[in-house]
């Protein structure tokens, strides 16, 4: 059968995202086919489109989606046609109307969570879970610095860190995003386009520094982030939207006994049990009101190029979602 999808035939800007027909077959042993209802957009999708991360051409981008099971392959148990499931990080290829995935990667979506919310929080939420409970375990009394505090992961990071009892410092680019970051649990918000965030963090912490920095910006903030850490602090780099950070000699960490980490969600959700536990933590946070999902931008799937352009230009905040079928406008 043929479905419509976004494909990348060459590395480049948003314009290389083309809307075309692709062939999709029946699920094989241990696989299911999903009719996507909502697709999450993540900055990592841009990394693949621009060649920062490698994927053989041509490819369908996307690492997060929620949909309804439309077919079940031989040997699959516990999943039926009509079930609502999500999938995140792997396999690549969610920018499509339908996709086939291994059944072991399907995550049941609670009935209380709608398709768009689930597609907005699954990958970002599990990433946040890894950041605050695995890569560095935030405890009450910690002081944390979150860059891009109004972004998809940043927003959830601020909320979860606040709920765990941390003092949260967030950096953003505009006053509008500063308001959102404060609403999401930032006790101190720094507009880095107007202020030196290193100097501001020093002032806020009385020059003690922070226990951990969560940095998804990369090159533009990395060096300053290291300066913000207290002795025995932890630098968690989980993205590089401004480019790869310059290399850091290991010996540079010794002056303050710092720890540097670059965690990837897939290594913390490698088994079925780990995957379902991480997703369960996220959905429990949503149900308890600890995590408020901000779906601030929704585009038709065929306008993925516009979504990418807006995300790269930092015109977005919160989550960005693509819909294969947009709801009809109110008359």
Task: Set out the fold topology.
Layout: E1 2-8, E2 17-23, E3 31-41, H1 43-50, E4 64-72, E5 84-88, E6 98-102, E7 107-108, H2 115-135, E8 143-146, H3 152-163, E9 167-172, H4 175-183, E10 188-191, H5 197-204, E11 210-215, H6 222-228, E12 229-237, E13 259-261, H7 265-268, H8 272-288, E14 295-300, H9 304-312, E15 319-323
Parallel strand pairs: 8-9, 8-11, 9-10, 11-12, 12-13, 14-15
Antiparallel strand pairs: 1-2, 3-4, 3-6, 3-15, 4-5, 5-7
Helix pairs in contact: 2-3, 2-8, 5-6
Question: Your description of this structure?
Answer:
The protein has 331 residues and is an alpha/beta fold. The mean pLDDT is 95. It starts with a strand and ends in an 8-residue tail after the last strand. Strands 3, 4, 5, 6, 7, 14 and 15 form a seven-stranded mixed β-sheet that branches. Strands 10-9-8-11-12-13 form a six-stranded parallel β-sheet, with helices on both faces. It has a two-stranded antiparallel sheet with strand order 1-2. It is built from nine helices and 15 strands. It has helices at 43-50, 115-135, 152-163, 175-183, 197-204, 222-228, 265-268, 272-288, 304-312; strands spanning 2-8, 17-23, 31-41, 64-72, 84-88, 98-102, 107-108, 143-146, 167-172, 188-191, 210-215, 229-237, 259-261, 295-300, 319-323. Helix 2 (115-135) crosses helix 3, helix 2 (115-135) crosses helix 8 (272-288) and helix 5 packs parallel to helix 6 (222-228). The chain is globular, with a radius of gyration of 20 Å. This is Probable quinone oxidoreductase. It comes from Oryza sativa subsp. japonica (Rice). Keywords: NADP, Oxidoreductase.
């Amino acid at each position: 059968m043929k479905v419509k999808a976004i494909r990348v035939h060459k590395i480049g800007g948003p314009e290389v995202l083309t809307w075309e027909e692709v062939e999709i077959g029946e699920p094989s042993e241990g696989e299911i086919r999903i009719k996507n209802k909502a697709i999450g957009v993540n900055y990592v999708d841009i990394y693949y489109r621009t060649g920062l991360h490698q994927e053989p051409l041509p490819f369908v981008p996307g690492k997060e989606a929620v949909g309804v099971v439309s077919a079940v392959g031989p040997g699959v148990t516990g999943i039926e046609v009509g079930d609502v499931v999500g999938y995140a990080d792997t396999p690549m290829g969610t920018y499509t109307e339908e996709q086939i995935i291994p059944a072991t990667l399907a995550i049941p979506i609670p009935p209380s969570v709608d398709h768009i919310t689930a597609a907005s929080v699954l990958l970002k939420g599990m990433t946040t879970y890894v950041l605050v409970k695995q890569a560095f375990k935030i405890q009450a009394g910690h002081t944390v610095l979150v860059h891009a505090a109004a972004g998809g992961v940043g927003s959830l990071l601020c909320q979860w860190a606040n709920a765990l009892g941390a003092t949260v410092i967030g950096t953003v680019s505009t006053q509008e995003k500063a308001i959102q970051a404060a609403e999401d649990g930032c006790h101190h918000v720094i507009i880095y386009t107007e202020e030196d965030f290193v100097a501001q963090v020093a002032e806020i912490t009385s020059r003690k520094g922070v226990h951990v920095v969560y940095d998804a910006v990369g090159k533009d903030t990395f060096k300053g982030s290291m300066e913000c850490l207290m002795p025995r602090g932890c630098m968690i780099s989980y993205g590089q939207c401004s480019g790869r950070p310059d290399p850091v000699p290991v010996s540079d960490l010794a002056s303050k006994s710092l720890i540097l980490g670059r965690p990837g969600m897939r290594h913390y959700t490698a088994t079925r049990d780990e995957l379902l536990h991480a997703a369960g933590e996220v959905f429990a946070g949503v149900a308890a009101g600890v995590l408020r999902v901000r779906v601030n931008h929704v585009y038709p799937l065929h306008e993925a190029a516009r979504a990418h352009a807006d995300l790269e230009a930092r015109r977005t905040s919160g989550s960005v979602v693509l819909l294969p079928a947009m709801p009809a406008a109110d008359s």
